[in-house]
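Example record used in the benchmark description.
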Amino acid sequence: MEQAQLAYFDYAATTPVRPEAVAALTEAAAQFGNPSSRYEFGRQAAARVGADRETVAKALGCAPGELFFTSCGTESDNWAIRRGVEVNRRKGKHIVTTAVEHAAVLETCRDLERQGYEVTYLKPDRAGRITVEQVRDALRPDTALVSMMLVNNETGAVLPAAESVKAVKAADPAILFHCDGVQGFLKMDCPLARLGADLIAVSGHKIGAPKGIGALYVKKGVRLRPLLTGGGQEDGMRSGTEATAQTAAFAAAVRASLAEPERLERTAAVKEYTLLKLKEALPRLEVISAGDAPHICAVTLPGYKSEVVVRVLGDQGVCISSGSACHKGKPSHVFAAMNLPKPWLDGALRLSFSPDTTREEADRLARALKDAADSLFTTLS
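Model output (structure tokens):
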């Protein structure tokens, strides 16, 4: 189906590549010099990567020397957590995280459990929220690292990362704090480095860059070892020939986003309108989370199967999801952790938006969802 025919409500999964990012990608790909080469062509490529780093770092609110390019948010999360616990290996083998983290965090923690680490998974309330008090109460003398996302990718709940950093550091400054900032980067009105976390992961394809580029912020003074070793690129922190085209596209997407200061307000407004239209069309629909962040919310049609609803709407060119794209059709661990009633859990749907989402698309979603509910009612109610 042509993209022009789509009504797309899955921006938390991925975003269209911005035209500015495509142009930058094409230009940088044509200038194919290896940034590690010592001749002029290579030095030009290195200079461009340096400029791209400055752009992304400025958006994060950090120094360029604190930002390291990676292949994706998952790599950044893995690097931060696996090497972060190494930093404090003499302190202990206890990790604190939440039960609603992205799989990149949860699966890494589970792998570390198999290696002898102990992990405390904080449970959310029915709105998907975690409190600072939960974090503070979970700390122990042997806690090495705390990992908390900023924006939940399935509910849009904003977790108290900044407040939790303060609580953790007040209890023990040696504990490292990692934040998965993938859904918060340029989606919240705050440069993420101001959260105070030691390590922050971000991803390009959530903001209009192509897939295959991310970054990790490493706060100055944190002595993190590389996850990937080899030729010593990224100041010795992340080996592998620099992905010059991807970093150029990432920086271009950042600039394009920042050139739209009203983007967050537009996104929040169309999300609010969509929820209103859905409730008008489907009185039986329930809102799981209206989302603190402007671009994500979660609803449910109790008594229906979300995977069936998603497929029926998809056949009509209306794209929604039943949770994170990384679940690949499996039940959402986020909604399960919220202890929702089974009918709510079965019918849970995630909607995510961009500044370009229109009210006409929202109207189309409401009609399609109502038609699906009416046609599926007799078999799934």
